[in-house]
């Protein structure tokens, strides 16, 4: 072993090589930020420099951790001379220019994080020579200039790949199907196009998939949920997918967050509303602004872990199922801009954790429950006071009448209160307990002003009507 190290030194590869490489790296850092690297000098031991970790035996640099150091300038090509480097972390700095192709010389590299900088240009093909890489983060830069290289498929040890918030384009190459150890794959907020990348269906261990804000289109495979059964978070919003939402999403038993809003999906067999037996219970499900039609099925009440459900801007019809009242963890429910009809089920009053309830622009009628904003008729019931966590109460511009419930003063978390444009009468509720809070975007004093203004407008209207 000692002979091997002597041989390396004979060819000029030693800790002195690392020292020179790092000093050259420092020289390319903008002068106003070099103070962070003040320990990088010839009078200090290399292995004591800020962010530097050396191996125990050979004293070569194996880790460089400068994330969040507020460094600027460019990344020096000499970084490629750190031949023992296993981990390079430059996240959250202000480096500009291109990623040096010499990074591809770091054949021992397992971890590379260049995210949250201002790096430009194309991804150097040489990076994909680093065949031991298991985690690669290039997100939140200004990378552009073409497609995702097919040689990404060479990194068969890769488990996490993040490229989101850049400007790459074209189709995702089929060669990445070899990355069958992938756990997290994020190419969101680029300009990728084509159908859903078929190579991804080979990622059977995938848990986090983020492809939002691209130009993907076409249909999803019907066996989607069988091929990707381990998903925890699935974000596909703001694309051009169409067709039915696959019923096999019910096979994804660990799915917690599902977003496919702002596409062109159709059908009512959603991940949250597939026919019994339901096997998933995500925490959040956002399917807004699609072409989903039909009734909301009764089986939705089985999703007892659901905290947020958004179906705004679809083509839903029929009655709102009473089983909605079984979702006791629900904090947000948004059904605006559909054609749901009939009465609001009283069971909504069971949702005591509810903070946001939006039902505007539907066809509801009859007696209603709290926090609604529709073309509704009826009265505002006393059980509004049970919703002590309610933040938004929207019931403006409806046909509500009768007395305002005295229990309104129990809604101590109330921030937004909109009740104008109705036909309330009788005694004004006591809302003295609604205390102001600096953290609220609409303070209770403003809510009180809204109520007073509503009362004044109401009595003014009555006086006008008498005359």
Give the topology.
Elements: H1 2-10, H2 15-27, E1 52-54, E2 61-65, E3 72-74, E4 87-89, E5 94-96, E6 111-113, E7 120-121, E8 135-137, E9 142-143, E10 160-162, E11 169-170, E12 184-186, E13 191-195, E14 208-210, E15 215-218, H3 224-227, E16 233-235, E17 240-244, E18 257-259, E19 264-266, E20 284-286, E21 293-294, E22 308-310, E23 315-316, E24 332-334, E25 341-342, E26 356-358, E27 363-364, E28 377-379, E29 392-394, E30 399-403, E31 416-418, E32 423-425, H4 444-466
Parallel strand pairs: 2-4, 3-5, 4-6, 6-8, 7-9, 8-10, 10-12, 11-13, 12-14, 13-15, 14-16, 15-17, 16-18, 17-19, 18-20, 20-22, 21-23, 22-24, 24-26, 25-27, 28-30, 29-31, 30-32
Antiparallel strand pairs: 1-2
Number of strands: 32
Coarse structural class: alpha/beta
Helix content: 10-25%
As a percent range, the share of strand residues is 15-25%
Architecture overview:
The chain is of the alpha/beta class. The chain has a domain at 317-467: Ribonuclease Inhibitor (Leucine-rich repeat, LRR (right-handed beta-alpha superhelix)), CATH 3.80.10. It contains 4 helices and 32 strands. The chain has a 14-stranded mixed beta sheet, with no helix packed on it. Strand 1 and strand 2 form a beta hairpin. The protein is elongated and about 85 Å long. It starts with a helix and ends with a helix. Mean pLDDT is 82; it is low at 1-12, 269-279, 367-377, 437-452 and 454-467. It is found in: Cell membrane; Membrane. This is Leucine-rich repeat-containing N-terminal plant-type domain-containing protein. Residues 64-261 form the Disease resistance R13L4/SHOC-2-like LRR domain.
């Amino acid at each position: 072993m000692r002979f091997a190290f002597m041989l390396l030194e004979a060819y000029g590869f030693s800790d002195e090589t690392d020292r020179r490489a790092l000093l050259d790296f420092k020289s390319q850092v903008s002068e106003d930020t070099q103070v962070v690297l003040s320990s990088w000098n010839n009078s200090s031991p290399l292995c004591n420099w800020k962010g530097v970790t050396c191996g125990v035996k050979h004293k070569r640099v194996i880790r460089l951790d400068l994330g969040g150091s507020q460094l600027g300038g460019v990344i020096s090509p000499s970084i490629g001379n750190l031949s023992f480097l296993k981990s390079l972390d430059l996240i959250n700095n202000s480096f500009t220019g291109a990623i040096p192709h010499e990074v591809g010389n770091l054949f021992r590299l397992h971890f590379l994080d260049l995210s949250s900088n201002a790096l430009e240009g194309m991804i150097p093909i040489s990076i994909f020579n680093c065949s031991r890489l298991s985690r690669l983060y290039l997100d939140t830069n200004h990378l552009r200039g073409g497609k995702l290289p097919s040689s990404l498929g060479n990194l068969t040890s890769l488990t996490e790949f993040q490229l989101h918030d850049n400007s790459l384009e074209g189709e995702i190459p089929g060669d990445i199907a070899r990355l069958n150890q992938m756990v997290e794959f994020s190419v969101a907020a680029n300009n990728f196009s084509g159908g859903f990348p078929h190579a991804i269906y080979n990622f059977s261990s995938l848990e986090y998939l983020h492809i939002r804000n691209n130009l993907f289109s076409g249909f999803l495979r019907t066996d989607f949920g069988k091929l990707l059964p381990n998903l925890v978070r699935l974000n596909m919003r703001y694309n051009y997918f169409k067709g039915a939402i696959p019923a096999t999403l019910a096979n994804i038993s660990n799915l917690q967050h599902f977003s496919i809003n702002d596409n062109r999906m159709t059908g009512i067999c959603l991940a949250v509303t597939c026919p019994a037996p339901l096997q998933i219970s995500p925490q959040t499900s956002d399917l807004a602004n699609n072409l989903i039609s039909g009734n909301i099925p009764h089986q939705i009440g089985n999703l007892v872990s659901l905290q947020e459900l958004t179906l705004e801007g679809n083509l839903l019809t029929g009655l709102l199922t009473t089983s909605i009242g079984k979702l006791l963890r629900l904090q947000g429910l948004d059904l605006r801009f559909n054609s749901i009809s009939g009465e609001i089920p009283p069971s909504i009053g069971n949702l005591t954790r509810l903070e946001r309830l939006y039902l505007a622009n539907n066809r509801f009628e009859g007696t209603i429950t709290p926090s609604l904003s529709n073309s509704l008729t009826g009265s505002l019931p006393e059980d509004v006071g049970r919703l002590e966590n309610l933040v938004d109460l929207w019931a403006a511009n409806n046909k509500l009448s009768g007395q305002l419930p005295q229990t309104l003063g129990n809604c101590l978390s109330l921030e937004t209160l909109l009740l104008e444009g109705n036909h309330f009468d009788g005694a004004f509720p006591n809302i003295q307990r609604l205390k102001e809070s600096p953290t609220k975007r609409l303070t209770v004093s403003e809510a009180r002003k809204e109520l007073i203004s509503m009362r004044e407008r109401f009595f003014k209207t009555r006086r006008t009507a008498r005359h």
